[in-house]
Amino acid sequence: MKRVFTVAAMLLSIGTLCAQQPGGGISEAMLQEIRSSHTLTQADKAAHNALAQTSIATLAINGENLAMIDTHFSHRVKTKGITDQHQSGRCWLFTGLNVLRAEMIEKYNLPEMTFSHNYLFFYDQLEKCNLFLQAVIDTKHLKMDDRQVEWLFKHPLSDGGQFTGVSNLVMKYGVVPASVMPENFQTNNTSQISNLLALKLREYGLKLREQKDRRAPVALKTEMLKEIYSMLVRAYGVPPTEFEWTRYDREGNAVDTKTYTPQSFYKEYFGELDLEKDFVMIMNDPTREYHKVYEIEYDRHVYDGENWVYLNLPIEEVKALAIASIKDNTAMYFSCDVGKFLLSKKGTLDIRNFDYESLMGVEFPMNKEQRVRTFASGSSHAMTLIAVDLDEEGNAKKWMVENSWGPQAGWQGNLIMTDEWFEEYMFRVVVNRKYIPEATLKLLEQKPVMLPSWDPMFSYEE
């Protein structure tokens, strides 16, 4: 039998509670009352015996929900291949480039295509180092214990990110095929080099704050970035400025061989597609007013780029945009709280995957808005939204994302989520403007509400 305390029951019992210690501590009388409220049952003993030897996640697996979800989807974007970010926080970069590669494979009848994550990640790290150093210069007038300065020194560098990083980096540096600048051990295992870079940045940050000459920091910053560049070259290699590449069709026939720069390669295969202007970040954050535009201060990957700006919409409007994109064979950047109710061996995201309530004998009734407000939930991982299964009335039954955890993870490298899970733990998608109604696009004309860089809802996706 569950021991469930409702708010009403708790309020009724307040008057009977024994006095607590002065200042709020647990008194002996209060402890005695708490102890006496519990009667050890056989269910308690059985649960304790199990929990003493087995993980909660294993014991909470819902035996009534072990059957695999139907893997048929009424609408699915044509994609090929599964990528693997290994032990790195680059899901945002893999996701953004997976959106592009799906379009390129389909448009040019390619057997496969993978872009170099190493190439763009090199410049991501260089740009983030510059972002930190310039931000330190910009905030020199503030005290070291100012919250903005404190936030900067706590977060000098990260390998995580979001779509703004993809759009800024691609439009500035172009793209190259994976074969031109392949992955290596350091790109697949980023924590050690990231920690060394962060340590160096904190050292540099202090030096910049100590400079008295207003002109000196720019020259000093340039010298610092030279050393950062040298560290990045040792870890990731030298980014190419020109390369030769042969395109093959699906039958394996060579179509042409050309010499490209990273920027001309993007231009050749994506034409006028502008990732910074043609796409809109759509959010579903129930803690903030819908149909409003928000901006996150310092939340960008390059100093001269755009801050992260998004439009907050109700979940049904988000679904409508996602469905329109998938129906037109266009994949989307998608992010969510992936760790919630994920059953890895099945590759499913379903709120019925785990029954924590029966195992622990209590309820967990908070809704999405309450979880976000209390820091219990937030976006943690980006993937590529590629499929939806619609019923006869056009309502979504389930969704599928292409993940970047390798082909053996999940269901054939993908994760399938129920529509109910989608509503509870999906947070944002990036949609091409052509799928957004005019009335919704008009909302983007608002002046964004500026949110602080330390807002926990907007930590980098990894």
Structural description of this entry:
This protein is α+β, with helices and mostly antiparallel strands and 462 residues long. The protein folds into three domains: 1-35, no CATH class; 115-270, Cysteine proteinases (Cathepsin B, Chain A, Alpha-Beta Complex); 273-458, Cathepsin B, Chain A (Alpha-Beta Complex). 39% of the residues lie in helices and 15% in strands. The chain contains 17 helices and 14 strands. Strands 1, 4, 5, 6, 7, 8, 9, 10, 11, 12, 13 and 14 form a twelve-stranded mixed β-sheet that branches. Strands 2-3 form a two-stranded antiparallel sheet. β2 and β3 form a beta hairpin. α5 crosses α8, α6 (117-138) packs parallel to α10 and α6 (117-138) packs antiparallel against α11. The longest helix is centred in the first third of the chain and has 22 residues, at 117-138.
Number of helices: 17
- The assigned structural class equals alpha+beta
Shape: globular
Amino- and carboxy-terminal Cα gap: 40 Å
The CATH architecture of the largest domain can be given as Alpha-Beta Complex
CATH class of the largest domain: Alpha Beta
Total strand segments: 14
Q: Cα-atom Rg, whole angstroms?
A: 25 Å
Overall residue-averaged pLDDT value:
92
- Helix fraction, binned, reads 25-40%
Low-confidence stretches: 1-5
Largest sheet: 12 strands, mixed
Total individual domains: 3
Strand content: 15-25%
